[in-house]
Amino acid sequence: MNLATTGRRGTDRIKGLLAPLGVAAGTGAVFALVGAVDPNEPGHYPTCPFLSLTGLYCPGCGTLRSIHALAHLDPVAALGLNPLMVAMIPFLLFWWGRWVVRALQGRPRRTTLAHPAWLWAFLAVVVVYWVVRNLPFGAFLAP
Asked: Does residue 75 contact residue 69 with C-beta atoms inside 8 Å?
């Protein structure tokens, strides 16, 4: 085994880890900022343009307040503000973890996130969530 080749593989693995670690650092920074600057107080963040224009909630409405609640260890409040975002956290952690494992193994990055059928299913869930949270019987999904 050539020492130069072994060292190069280790360097490639470290380079492969830079992207997922960068995403983790960026996510942590956003989480810390939203945890420190309360989105429940007016004037700290811009309002949702879809809500401002239509008076209807978009799928992302309540996400900042939900992240703030999670930062303060209140998962019940977070679920009440945006249950779809909270439900997505385990999936996002799974995909990020899979990315880290592939980088540690020195395997190339995947060019697709998931099978297209899963992505279409997710899009359908988001659209149904978007519609239902704006209907009278779906008021419990409103932030």
From this structure: yes
d(CA 121, CA 137) in angstroms, rounded, equals 23
Distance CA 139, CA 94 (A): 30
Ramachandran category for residue 43: left, alpha or beta (phi over 0 → left; psi -120 to 50 → alpha) = left
Per DSSP (E only), the strands in 13-69 are none
| CA 109 vs CA 16, 20, 62, 74, 92: distances in Å | 8, 11, 33, 35, 16
CB 141 within 8 A of CB 60: no
Q: Specify the pTM.
A: 0.81
d(CA 26, CA 32): 10
103 vs 9: CA distance, rounded Å: 11
Reading the block at residue 42, the tokens are 């007016």
Q: What are the helix (H) ranges across 37-115?
A: 49-54, 63-71, 75-81, 83-104
Distance between CA 30 and CA 10 in Å, rounded? 30
| Interval 43-72: pLDDT, tens | 889 888 999 999 999 999 999 999 999 999
